[in-house]
Structure formats: structure tokens, C-alpha cells
Write a structure and sequence with these properties.
about 500 residues, mainly beta, Methylamine Dehydrogenase, Chain H, Immunoglobulin-like, 2 domains, 34 strands, globular, signal, Secre_tail, Delta-60 repeat-containing protein, Delta_60_rpt
Amino acid sequence: MKTLLLSTLILSSASFAQIGSLNTTFSSDGLTFQFGTKNISRGAEVLLQNDGKTIVVGDSYTAGESGDIHVYRYNTDGTLDTGFGTNGVTTIASSPGTFQTANCATLTSDNKILIAGRRNNVAQVIRLRTDGLVDGTFDNDGIRLTGFSMPHEFNDIVALPDGEMLCLGVLNNSTGSDFIVAKITSTGADDATFGSSVPGYVGVSFGNTSVGTALHVNADNSFYVAGYTVDVALSADIAIAQISANGQSLVSSFGINGKKTFSVNAVGDNMVFAMQVLPNGNILLGGVANSKSLLCSLDPLGALNTDFNTTGYSLGNTGSFIHDIKILHANKIAAVGTKLSLYDVFLFDTLGVVDPSFVRETMPNGVDDTGEFLSVTTDGSQHLYAAGKTQISENITQITLAKYNLVASTTGISENSDQQLAIYPNPALNSLTISVVQPTQITICKVNGIEILKTIIDKQQTIDISDFAAGVYFIHSAEGQTIKLIKE
């Protein structure tokens, strides 16, 4: 296992609710790891129930063998919920020679779990009951397989209020592939009122090879489908379309006759894996452009929104990808993925500016940061949940779930009573209150170790930090305790 990358500063082991820190009330260190039944495991989707319980849906496989689907439900303290499945786990095993994936999942209004992906070359939807057992009222056995003869699979699923569901994916054809959208009833049947030439389905062709990856249903029940299309030069461009609620036509006011293809970087592939829509109707797309993470904003008609980072998009570092995005409180945007084979989590505002107050804590206790996050969700304002996989060795990965703090402690007091130093607020803008148990010398340093301030604190003192540049600082006490400070 690769050595965990640590700061050159030795930090205290105190558990503070800093923004971006792992939440230590969840599984003691904010992390859970699970091995699937096969060697290569991934957490494809993380879901949050209304009661605070967390669900991770994923799969595992061994090269050349069958693949299995796994669903875990965690209590609010990070322990497995023994009332779900078998001791907190449901495994849908494959028969020999059968390969299946869980590419996406969602919750219905009554907390049933919908899982979509593929079984061999056929798209598959599974519905689980709230207790984790396969729901036999859905397509008779809880598992719905579509009937196209060409290879196809689902990559995104949305549960509709009436119990029906929309699924988006890819359907191969003789010249490449198209987006495919299916509308399935609550009983697992095709919705014959949806689509036209093939009842229950609608295809969207962008020419050549096209893959649908992200789906969003609007308030008027029309919906966006997004993904990518490979052009004749074998380079991928972003593809998005808006489809009417009944699936019988494209919405002509969007893009050009309902569709839009574009790239933000003329070199390399431009692909979208995730989509969200802000309350003002602007569309957010997350993915990759020429091996750099991409977050892009379109207006409701499909034009680049130049209020977003002045160009309509924001690019990350080389070697990074965005796999999922979610809108948080105050319209902050969470994005997760990978950067240079390491986990990546960051926040943006609605104008495309990275939020410097969120600094993701690296994995503790020597756990390798090699891996990627594939899914993110939030409880709205307090916490962020990210699921994915951790690389153990070349041919072994684990299903990973991490819970991060989105807000700083309201008191600044450590959860451990033996700590001597506390600060409030954090992040701070103009002033900072430092509290100590007994008089002590504290030093404030930049990340590079340069000393900014040294003073003696007697019980409690408020200091002026208005002239500090925005960024990360470390506050050290003479007793050896260190706290990370975010200056806004």
C-alpha cells in the first residue's frame, strides 16, 4: 500500500468539526470500507434516507468471471444496519458466466431502492424493498430486463413521484450507438404512453457513437439527457438534449432543434458524467475535458452561461475527472472524482469559483488515498457523503464511503475534553476568538511555516485577522496542539 501523503506539519489528533474534515461520529473516523464478493469492488452510488441512514450501492467482479451487486445500509453512527438484508448487506449474485453491474441507483418516495445497470449485454433494473429484500411485486421477481437484441445498458435513473421511473443509457446499433431513455411503470412494465415508434422508449441520435450518462427531470416533466458523442476524428464531444414529458419529441427551443453538442477544449475528449439544474434553470454538467476535470454551466436554452467563471466552464488540473456533482445549501456545488489517481472532493459557488474553505482531509491512520469517488450526496447543509473505491493492490479494490463536515464547529471546542486550545469561528473573516484552559503562548503560521503572529493568550482573547490574506493557516500552542484555520 502506498504511503499516505501528509502535511509537513504534524497536526494534533483532536477531532474538530473543520470544513472538509472527516466526521468522526461516523464509524469513528468518518470512513467505511467493504470488500465485495469479487476482487474489484466499487461504490457506484450513495443515497441518504430521510431518517439519516446511508445506503451505498455498488458491484464487484473478478476478471474473466461473473459480477455481483452489493447494497449496504448504514446507521447514522456508521455501523451496518442489521435490519437490512443480511446483517446490513444485500448481495445479488450472478450465475456462472453472468456479468452484471450497478451503474446507478435512487430512492423512491417510500424508500425502496432502484438499481440500474446491465446484466451481460442487456439493461437491467432491480427494485429492493425497504428491508433490503428483492421486491417481487416489481416485474414478478424484482428484476426487470429490457428486450433489445443489440447490447445496451442504463447509466442513470430517476424515480418519479407516481412510482414510475426514467432510465437513461446507451443502445448499440449497426453504426455505433445512441442515447436510450426508458420509462418503466411501478409494476416493472413498459409505459406504453411514453415514446412513439417503440412504446416505452425514446432514442436520441447524435450520430456515430453516443453514450447517455446523466438525466434530470424538470418541473414541467420534460427532461434533459446528457453524455458524450464520438465524432469522425474519434474525439468525444459533450452531447445534451431536452425531451418532452411524453417522450414523443425534442423541445425545439433548446440548443438546435432540441439538441446541442460542443467541446470546451478542442484537444482531447470532452465528456459529461453528471448533471444538476440550479433553481434559476441553469444546467450544471460535470465531467472531463482533455484529461482535466470539467464543471460547465449552460443556460436553460443550452448556451454557455458566461456568468460562470467568465467562460461558462471551470477546468481542474491535468489527470483529474469529475464523476458526480450535487447542489448543496446556499447553492454551493459539491463535485467528486479523482485527481492523479487520488480521491478528489471540492466545492464551487454558482459562479464557478472554488470554495477555499473546504479542504478535504486526507485519509487517516495510513489508509491509502489512491482511489476515486464516483458518487456524492448531502444532508443539505451539515455533511457530505462520498462513495467510490479504494485501491488496495493492482487487482484488488474496496467499496469506500466517506462522511465529511460541511460546516465548522459552532463552538470551536474539541470533542476531546483533554484538549487545551479552541478557536471560533472557523472559517473566520475579520476576527478570531482563541480560548485556552490556562495561559499559553500561541503561534499562527502560514502553510509554508512562516510565522505571522505570536502572542500569549490568557483564557480567551479575540484577535484582528482582517489583514491576513485568504487561505489556510495553522495555530500552534506551546503545549503542542495544532488547529487548522481557514481565513476567508
